[in-house]
Write a structure and sequence with these properties.
globular, single chain, Rossmann fold, alpha/beta, 4 strands, about 170 residues, 5 helices
Amino acid sequence: MERLPVQQTDGPYRIALVCLGNICRSPMAHVVLADHLDRAGLAAKVEVSSAGTGGWHVGKPMDPRAATALVGEGYDPSAHRARQYDAGWLETHDVVLVMDRANLADVGSHERVALFRDFDPVDRGGEVPDPYYGGDDGFGEVLSMVERTSAAIVDALQHRDRTGKPA
């Protein structure tokens, strides 16, 4: 996917971010993308949610290492609680961006499903590696990927429609 899909839902443009457990990668992306949208003046026009394909962590906060990485860069991860992805999200979200190819297989093929890093200006189409079983450095690496990809997504939303409506 080279471009964000045309809006399918009523109201704000809805972006879902999906990883395996919704405690590392997708919540980091959620916090960062929401922050970037807010700073760009798009918070009322674009809604972000995140979930995991597995339900092991439902209701739990973000992994402390992910939260620490975010706080270190000035983000607030405190509101996050893990949720599980539901196939119905394809009906309620305009695009579902997954963190890796295993998540892509779990969510299924659809014209509105893509890899998050399809929008990464450095490595288009790459995967966001799962830092859960690694050291703290992995969370910083993920945060760097998430920040530059989120900036590119916000830029794409800002330039899609000159009327100001992200599509």
